[in-house]
Amino acid sequence: SRNITGAGANPALITISGAATYDWQTLLNGSVQTVSFTINNIGGVAATGLNGTGLAAPYSFPGGYPGTGGDCGISLAPASSCTVFVRFSPSVSNTH
Question: Strands of 33-41's sheet, edge to edge?
Fold first, then answer.
């Protein structure tokens, strides 16, 4: 038999800068607005599986995930942050 010790860590916990929702305001069809968002991992272990899925037109990552100028990868270490850029480019009159 052996003595075994260990320490628990809080799971990864992701927060995104700003409010729970982002208001893009009203844009003319055919116009483009790009906004940066900071993603923070305030948990105790790395967040894995970050990727660019989940956005649908009229939203996109300009140039692909994480957006041109963004620095997020597929994982985010604990107590770290990274940036993504999201583009809103409406082509029809509607509330998105």
Answer: 14-16, 33-41, 80-88, 59-60
